[in-house]
């Protein structure tokens, strides 16, 4: 027979809503199981909101450089290094992911793959 554990609350999905609920429940001294089939942070952190905004930021910087002469700033855009842009994006995602892992761990939320 498998070992069982009792929790005050079980949350399905470790996306932004799920981990926020889990952290709040832990603040209230409840025992929490957070069940996620993929990665802590969900779609928003890994494939949606966060990586998209990082890519958009790189595009906005390039656009600002292209338009800088219009405000009296001389500059030139030598090109876009797609590999470096992707590294920038992955760095942001990884930093936020590690921070979220630490936060969940420090609050003693039990993250369950399922």
Which CATH class is shown?
A: Alpha Beta
Secondary-structure element string: EHEHHHE
* Cα Rg: 20 Å
- The CATH architecture comes to 3-Layer(bba) Sandwich
* Number of distinct beta strands: 3
**The number of domains:** 1
Q: Can you summarize the main beta sheet?
A: 3 strands, parallel
Find the CATH topology: FAD/NAD(P)-binding domain
Give the DSSP E fraction (strand runs of 2 or more residues): 5-15%
Fraction of helical residues: 40-55%
Low-confidence stretches: none
Describe the strand arrangement of the main beta sheet, using strand numbers.
1-2-3
Keywords: Disulfide bond, FAD, Flavoprotein, NAD, Oxidoreductase, Redox-active center
Pfam families: Pyr_redox_2
Domain FAD/NAD(P)-binding: 7-105
Organism: Georgenia soli
Could you characterize the architecture of this molecule?
This protein is mostly helical and 114 residues long. The chain has a single domain, classed as FAD/NAD(P)-binding domain, CATH 3.50.50. It has helices at residues 16-27, 42-46, 49-66, 82-106, and strands at 9-12, 32-36, 110-113. Strands 1-2-3 form a 3-stranded parallel sheet, covered by helices on one side. β1 (9-12), α1 and β2 (32-36) form a beta-alpha-beta unit. The longest helix has 25 residues, at 82-106. The mean pLDDT is 96.
């Amino acid at each position: 027979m498998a070992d069982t554990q009792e929790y005050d609350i079980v949350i399905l999905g470790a996306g932004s809503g799920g981990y926020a609920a889990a952290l709040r429940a832990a603040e209230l001294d409840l025992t929490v199981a957070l069940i996620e089939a993929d990665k802590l942070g969900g779609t928003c952190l890994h494939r949606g909101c966060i990586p998209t905004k990082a890519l958009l930021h790189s595009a906005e910087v390039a656009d600002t450089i292209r338009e800088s002469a219009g405000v009296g700033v001389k500059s030139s855009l030598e090109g876009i290094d797609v590999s470096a842009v992707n590294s920038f994006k992955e760095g942001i995602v990884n930093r936020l992911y590690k921070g979220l892992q630490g936060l969940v761990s420090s609050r003693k939320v039990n993250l369950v793959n399922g």
